[in-house]
Amino acid sequence: MITFRDKTYRCTSEIILSLVSGKWKISILNELANGPVRFNQLQRLLPEATQRMLTMQLRMLENDGLIIRKVYPVSPPKVEYGLSELGEQFAPMLTMLCDFGTTYIESYPDEVSYTSQKHA
């Protein structure tokens, strides 16, 4: 057993799953893997996410050290989000998850339909 941040886990993979669990976290990380993005750009990229939910998930990812929030001293304020060093290390695993997801759903062709793209 591992105790981390006052919670007990059976293995470290459970810790990682708890870091990225949340409706929009993986989608946010996938978008940031392409480079830094401003908040409004993220809202356009993830139109189903409410502003409140997006803000909350971004704060959680920042607190967990997976993303960096950079504020530029201009008026009006400009804020950019990008992957931290830890987030950059996690990016290849996101790609692997997407690839496995594609492989998995393709093994059930009668149960899948695509509305836009396969990868997040």
UniProtKB/TrEMBL annotation:
Gene3D superfamilies: Winged helix-like DNA-binding domain superfamily/Winged helix DNA-binding domain (1.10.10.10)
Domain of life: Bacteria
InterPro entries membership: HTH_HxlR (IPR002577), WH-like_DNA-bd_sf (IPR036388), WH_DNA-bd_sf (IPR036390)
Limits of the HTH hxlR-type domain: 11-109
Record keyword Transmembrane present: no
One Pfam match: HxlR
GO molecular function, one term: DNA binding
Keywords: DNA-binding, Transcription, Transcription regulation
Name of protein: DNA-binding HxlR family transcriptional regulator
